Amino acid sequence: MTELTTLISKFQEWYKKAQKQEKFPDAACLSTLNPEGYPEGRIILVRRIYDDGFGFFSNSNSKKGIDLARYPKASLTFHWQELGCQVRIVGDIQLLSPEENDDYFQERPWLSQVGAWASLQSESYASRADFESRVDAFKSEYENKEVPRPPHWIGYKLKPTKMEFWEDRPFRLHYREQYTLRDNDGWQKK
Fold first, then answer.
1. 145: exposed, middle or buried (Cβ count in 10 Å: 0-12, 13-18, 19+)
2. Which candidate, 190, 181, 182, 185, places its Cα nearest to that of 89?
3. Of 86, 122, 163, 171, which one has the greatest count of Cβ atoms within 10 A?
4. Tens of pLDDT along 132-151?
5. Where are the beta strands (DSSP E) in 15-105?
6. What is the enclosing helix (H) or strand (E) of 181?
């Protein structure tokens, strides 16, 4: 039986290679289910790799935040073109602690922190100028100050229940390993 820590270690080996060859090694497609039951995918940046999952941060009022609150299951797909491989991960979503959210928020550039307050993510504006006006207002409010984390800006952890490692091979004879968590039997490899 394979343990999750072994699978995360394998992911980290590939990720270290990707960090040397890929422009955005932490970019992944996050897929959620919308209220109509359709999948919604978007590229996010996975900012934390834990022994038991993958962490990312977002506006909880966004479409993805609302989807994850309604149905806390999702998938991540990392595709590393230069390496010729990808990792697909399906799992359950957990919220990160307020302390973890605060710690990561303070690592972000100042303007990204301001943007977290200014952006009404997933909502429409009458014009780009309206959005830029909001950004300017928050820049003024927090000029020369530490920017507090907005209460709606939170972190999520995807805890895998399935992981698939795919490697490109000539003539489309690709190599794929899939691991699925079974309730009492640990991880099954195919």
1. exposed
2. 181
3. 163
4. 888 899 999 999 999 999 99
5. 27-33, 39-45, 48-50, 53-59, 73-80, 85-95
6. strand 175-182
* pLDDT tens per residue across span 33-53: 999 999 999 999 999 999 999
Q: For residue 188, count other CB atoms closer than 10 A to its CB.
A: 13
**CA 149: distance to chain centroid?**
18
| pLDDT at position 1 over 70 | no
Q: Are 32 and 68 in contact (CB under 8 A)?
A: yes
Q: Which two tokens stand for residue 152?
A: 């709606």
Q: How far is CA 140 from CA 1, 23, 126, 135, 168, in A?
A: 56, 33, 22, 9, 50
> For residues 11 and 6, what is the distance between their CA atoms, to the nearest angstrom?
9
